[in-house]
Design goal:
Layout lengths: L10 E4 L3 H13 L5 E4 L5 H8 L3 E5 L7 H11 L4 E6 L4 H9 L4 E4 L4 H29 L17 H13 L6 E4 L6 H12 L5 E5 L5 H9 E2 L11 E2 L1 H4 L4 E5 L6 H13 L1 E2 L8 E2 L3 E6 L3 H6 L5 H7 L2 E4 L9 H17 L8 H8 L6 H15 L13 H6 L16 H6 L5 H15 L4 H8 L3 H10 L21
Parallel strand pairs: 1-2, 1-3, 3-4, 4-5, 6-13, 6-14, 7-10, 10-13
Antiparallel strand pairs: 8-9, 11-12
Helix pairs in contact: 5-6, 10-12, 13-15, 18-19
Length: 491
C-alpha cells in the first residue's frame, strides 16, 4: 500500500551495519516502496537531507561518530517536515520514551518484524502526504489565482463558492487518499471527479462506475472481474473496473446505495489496496485512486445502520460538497447562455434572444434537479422554439410552476373580491410603492447584483441607484456582479 502515498521523497535507512540496512531496504522495496536509500556512515545523513530531503528516516540508535539520539535531535530541529523512526537493539522502555519525547514517530526493536516495519513506513508516508497537502492548502489560501484553471473548463461557473472549492480541489487532488464528492442530484459530481483526475497527474484512465442498484455479486464482478469458470456463463477471464483504472482514477458514483457485503469489500480495497477476482484465490494489488460520490447524507445512513461508519471515515478523508444551483443564482445566466450555445448547435438553429421575463422566472425557480434540470429546460425550449424571443412559456411544463412565483408582484388570489395587489400590500399600492417593491424584489432575486437586477426590470443600473438614493437607501455593488452578457438579454 505504501507506494500509493509515495511523494517521491526517499525513505532513508541509516545503520552502520550494511547487512541490516540492505535487508531493511529489500523488505521495503518488496512491499512497494519505490524510493529507498541507505547510508552506513552517520556523518553523511545531514548532507544527504540538505541535498535530497526525505519522507522518513529509519535511524539506528547506536552508531559510531554520531549516535542515533544525536541525529534524531538534529533532524527534528533542522528538518521538522521529515519523519524519524528509531530502530534499536536495546528494548528499553525508558529509551523509547525519550526518543518519542524528542519527536520520533515510532520506536522499533531489533530484529524488526517485516509487518511492523511496513506498517511504520506506511504511517510515515501518509503523514508526510497530509503535511504536504496542508502546506499547499495554506499557499492556495494566500493566493487568489488557480494554478490549473483548465482542469475546471467543463464546470461553468462565476460563483465565489465554486471558486473556493476549485482551490481546495487543486490541493487535495495531488494526494492518493480517497475523495468524497457530495451534493444533490444534477450538481455536477462526475464533472468534479474528472477535474480531480486531471489535476492528479496520474497516467492511467478515468473509469466511472455507478454502483446504485448493484447486488453484491454484480458489484464484485463489475469491480474485481472474474476467473474463467467462476460461475455459469464465465467462459473466459475478465478484468474488472479496478484493473482498468490501474494507475488512474476509479470513480464510484451513488456510493450510498451499496449493499453491506459490498461495503466490506470496498473497505478492504481502501485499507489494504488489495482485492480478489470472483472465483480466484490469487490476491491482486490496486494502484487506482478512489473518488466516490453520493447524493445521500451518509451520516444519517450510518445512524440508520445502512452504511458502515468505518467505510465513511475511509472515504471522507477529503470531502468536496457541491452547492445546489439555488445557492449560486449568479450562475444561472452563465449556464443559460452556455446551454443555449450547445442546444442551437445540436438542433442546427440560430441562437434566440431570451426575454428578461424568462430570466426573471428562472432566477425564481428552485431547481430541484440543479444544473441538469436547467440544461433539460433549455434544450427542450430550443427544440420547440419556432421564432421570436424565448419567454417563460418557452420552458414548457415548467412555465406554469414558474408563474406561481411572485416575481413582479403578481399573486394568485383565491380570495374572491380581493385583488392580489391588495393582498400583498394590504391596500391598492401607489406607483411609488410598487416601484420600490419591484426594485427591492429584483435586487433580492439577483442576490444584490445590480447588472442582473437592472436586466430583469428593463432599466439601467444607474436608474436603480438613483431611485434607491431618492428613497434614502444607498446601493453598493457586489464584487460578484456579472459583466454584461452580450446578446443574451434583449431588453
Amino acid at each position: 500500500m505504501s507506494d500509493r502515498f509515495d511523494s517521491g521523497l526517499p525513505v532513508l535507512v541509516v545503520d552502520d551495519e550494511e547487512s541490516i540496512s540492505s535487508l531493511i531496504c529489500l523488505t521495503l522495496r518488496n512491499a512497494g516502496v519505490r524510493n529507498v536509500q541507505s547510508i552506513n556512515d552517520s556523518r553523511l545523513v545531514v548532507p544527504f537531507l540538505e541535498e535530497h530531503g526525505a519522507a522518513l528516516v529509519l535511524l539506528d540508535m547506536f552508531m559510531p561518530h554520531f549516535s542515533g539520539k544525536e541525529l534524531l535531535g538534529s533532524i527534528r530541529h533542522e528538518y521538522p517536515e521529515v519523519q524519524v523512526a528509531v530502530i534499536s537493539g536495546a528494548n528499553e522502555l525508558k529509551l523509547a520514551v525519550e526518543c518519542m519525547k524528542m519527536g520520533a514517530l515510532d520506536y522499533l526493536s531489533k530484529p524488526v518484524e517485516a509487518n511492523r516495519l511496513i506498517a511504520c513506513v506506511n504511517n510515515a508516508l501518509v503523514i508526510n502526504a497530509m503535511q504536504g497537502e496542508l502546506q499547499r492548502l495554506k499557499k492556495q489560501l494566500l493566493e487568489d489565482a488557480l494554478e490549473n484553471p483548465d482542469a475546471f473548463t467543463e464546470i461553468k461557473t462565476c460563483s465565489s463558492k465554486m471558486r473556493a472549492l476549485f482551490k481546495y480541489t487543486e490541493v487535495i487532488s495531488r494526494s492518493p487518499l480517497p475523495i468524497m464528492i457530495t451534493g444533490e442530484t444534477g450538481v455536477g459530481k462526475e464533472l468534479m471527479a474528472r477535474a480531480v483526475h486531471r489535476l492528479s497527474g496520474v497516467g492511467g484512465e478515468f473509469v466511472s462506475v455507478n454502483v446504485a442498484g448493484f447486488d453484491d455479486s454484480t458489484f464484485s464482478d463489475t469491480l474485481f472481474g472474474h476467473k474463467k469458470g467462476a460461475f455459469t456463463g464465465a467462459d473466459q477471464t475478465r478484468e474488472g473496473m479496478v484493473a482498468l483504472a490501474a494507475g488512474g482514477t476509479l470513480f464510484l458514483d451513488e456510493i450510498g446505495d451499496m449493499e453491506e457485503r459490498s461495503q466490506i469489500k470496498l473497505l478492504r480495497l481502501l485499507q489494504e489496496g488489495e482485492y480478489y477476482p470472483v472465483g480466484s484465490d490469487t490476491r491482486k494489488k490496486t494502484t487506482a485512486r478512489i473518488v466516490a460520490a453520493t447524493n445521500h447524507n451518509l451520516s444519517e445512513r450510518v445512524a440508520g445502520k445502512l452504511f458502515r461508519r468505518d467505510l465513511l471515515y475511509r472515504l471522507s478523508i477529503h470531502t468536496i460538497h457541491l452547492p445546489p444551483l439555488r445557492e449560486r443564482p449568479e450562475d444561472i445566466p452563465l449556464l443559460l447562455n452556455h446551454f443555449l450555445d450547445e442546444a442551437v448547435h445540436v438542433y442546427h438553429k440560430e441562437k434566440p434572444h431570451v426575454a428578461v421575463s424568462a430570466v426573471s422566472h428562472l432566477l425564481g425557480w428552485n431547481f430541484p434537479g440543479n444544473v441538469r434540470e436547467l440544461k433539460s429546460m433549455v434544450f427542450d425550449a430550443v427544440a420547440r422554439h419556432g421564432g421570436g424571443d424565448l419567454t417563460a412559456r418557452s420552458f414548457g411544463d415548467y412555465a406554469e410552476e414558474l408563474q406561481q412565483t411572485p416575481i413582479i408582484g403578481e399573486l394568485v388570489a383565491n380570495c374572491p373580491g380581493k385583488h392580489g395587489l391588495d393582498m400583498m400590500f394590504g391596500h391598492f399600492p401607489t406607483i411609488h410603492e410598487a416601484e420600490t417593491y419591484l426594485i427591492d424584489e429584483a435586487l433580492r432575486r439577483a442576490s444584490g447584483n445590480l447588472n442582473l437586477a437592472a436586466a430583469m426590470l428593463g432599466i439601467t443600473r444607474q436608474t436603480i441607484t438613483n431611485r434607491k438614493k431618492a428613497n434614502g437607501a444607498a446601493v453598493k455593488a457586489k464584487k460578484t456582479d456579472i459583466p454584461p452578457m452580450g446578446n443574451l438579454f434583449e431588453v
